[in-house]
């Protein structure tokens, strides 16, 4: 019996050693460079995020403004890129006259002087609205952006034309597969090099349509990211990458990252090898979508010399910490 025990022990040690060698980040090549920064909504007004639900009017919970930009506008996107963003996230809604409006909310009533469901309007009508109308930081006593956002809601076509060489992340707000098919048509009409600089995330159904019709565009949905991470944690030690993680935008909550085999360098290399881009978010606690890496304390949780993607709502502050602005560095 002794030799059997020795054989089993040796086999277990050999397997453990193989798993370690196959997954340790210490033996993986380090991808140099600075982090890839994603500015959520460009340069945006921040708001009190406590107990925020899908239907919360965040414009009415605005924090005292520190800049004059309104999210999802051309100026806010330009400011995000100028501040150090490599990618800017925007939200889109189809309109009844065949355009895609770039605007965050499902309805107009919170932020604008209009009313009704955003996608039930014409682009011509949306262009007439004041998108800064509803912002207030003092419970409605003052509205610092009222009158300053008239005509500032852009179309997706305008955004693509304004930033022909910039990387964009498009958020599809619905669960309508027809919207995914329509957006796929827009992306397929772009030059191949341009479409590859676009990523798309959102509802499972439209994302599935885009993934099927525009295979060169990296995508992710809530179901896909859950499948990607759970399956990778389950068998990623083998070096196999789940289908949901391939040609994807892999969103990683910072508190889930240590559970990923080979984090960070080997994991990043594996995702890069299947044409996927990794972006770290704030911690996930089982509720709403995680927030971004928005504070020095959150950024400090990233591995030293981390060169993957970082999702942030505070592009100015995080770009300075990450050394993406001239004259600054992480140190």
Automatic annotation (TrEMBL):
Residues 52-322 form the GP-PDE domain. The keyword Hydrolase applies. Its EC number is 3.1.4.46. CDD domains: GDPD_GDE4_like_1 (cd08613). InterPro entries: GP_PDE_dom, PLC-like_Pdiesterase_TIM-brl. Keywords: Hydrolase. One of its GO terms (molecular function) is glycerophosphodiester phosphodiesterase activity. Coiled coil: none annotated. Transmembrane segments: none annotated. This is Glycerophosphoryl diester phosphodiesterase. It comes from Bradyrhizobium ottawaense.
């Amino acid at each position: 019996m002794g030799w059997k025990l020795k054989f089993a022990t040796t086999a277990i040690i050999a397997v453990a050693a193989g798993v370690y060698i196959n997954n340790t980040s210490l033996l993986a090549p380090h991808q140099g460079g600075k982090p890839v920064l994603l500015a959520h909504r460009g340069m945006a007004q921040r708001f009190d995020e406590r107990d925020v639900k899908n239907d919360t009017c965040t414009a009415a919970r605005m924090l005292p403004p520190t800049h004059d930009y309104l999210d999802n506008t051309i100026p806010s996107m330009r400011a995000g890129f100028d501040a150090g963003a490599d990618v800017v996230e925007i939200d889109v809604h189809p309109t009844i006259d065949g355009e895609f409006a770039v605007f965050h909310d499902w309805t107009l009533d919170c932020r604008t002087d209009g009313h009704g469901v955003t996608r039930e309007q014409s682009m011509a009508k949306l262009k007439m609205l004041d998108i800064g109308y509803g912002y207030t930081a003092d419970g409605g006593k003052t509205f610092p952006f009222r009158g300053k956002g008239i005509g500032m809601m852009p179309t997706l076509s305008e955004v693509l034309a304004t930033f022909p060489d910039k990387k964009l992340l498009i958020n599809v707000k619905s669960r309508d597969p027809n919207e995914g098919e329509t957006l796929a048509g827009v992306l397929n009409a772009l030059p191949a090099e341009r479409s590859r600089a676009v990523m798309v995330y959102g509802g499972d159904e439209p994302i599935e349509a885009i993934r099927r019709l525009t295979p060169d565009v990296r995508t992710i949905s809530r179901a896909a990211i859950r499948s990607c991470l759970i399956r990778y944690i389950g068998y990623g030690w083998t070096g196999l990458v789940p289908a949901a993680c391939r040609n994807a935008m892999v969103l990683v909550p910072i508190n889930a990252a240590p559970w990923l085999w080979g984090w960070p360098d080997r994991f990043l290399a594996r995702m890069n090898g299947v044409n996927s881009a990794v972006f770290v978010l704030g911690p996930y606690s089982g509720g709403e979508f995680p927030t971004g890496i928005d504070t020095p304390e959150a950024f400090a949780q990233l591995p030293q010399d981390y060169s993957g993607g970082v999702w942030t709502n505070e592009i100015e502050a995080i770009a300075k910490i990450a050394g993406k602005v001239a004259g600054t560095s992480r140190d």
